[in-house]
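Researcher: We're reviewing a set of sequences before deciding which ones to prioritize for further study. For each one, I'd like a predicted 3D structure that I can look through quickly. This is DUF4843 domain-containing protein. If possible, include the structure in token form so it fits the rest of the review sheet.
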Amino acid sequence: MKRTLTYLAVTLLSAMIISACKKDDDETYNCPISLSTKAPADGLVVYSVTLESGAGVANLITYQGTSGKVTLNNPDLPFHVTIDVKTDDIISIATNVTAMHGKIAVGYAFSDPGGVVPEVDTQYCEN
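Model: Here's the predicted structure for DUF4843 domain-containing protein, in token form for your review sheet.
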């Protein structure tokens, strides 16, 4: 009887440990993302935050506008804005996004009028 109780206790404890280590399917991932560079020439920059799959939200987006930093709280996705830039202007976007069984892309795309110096940078938050 003692062996049976010990075996039962060990089995129950093992089952509890294994179930506690299981990944929770309701997990969300909070990702602070920051991208920055200088404009290599006069041109346009498109800042974007897009939901590529699943679910997710942008809690905060801050980007470098023509007159300084612009901050948006809880903007709708997809988010896109186009800004005129001059040579050596700061190109910068910082976000705090949350992916819920999804993938969020945060980035910028610079292009000059002649299309000679394109520059693109994108980072992802996903789970």
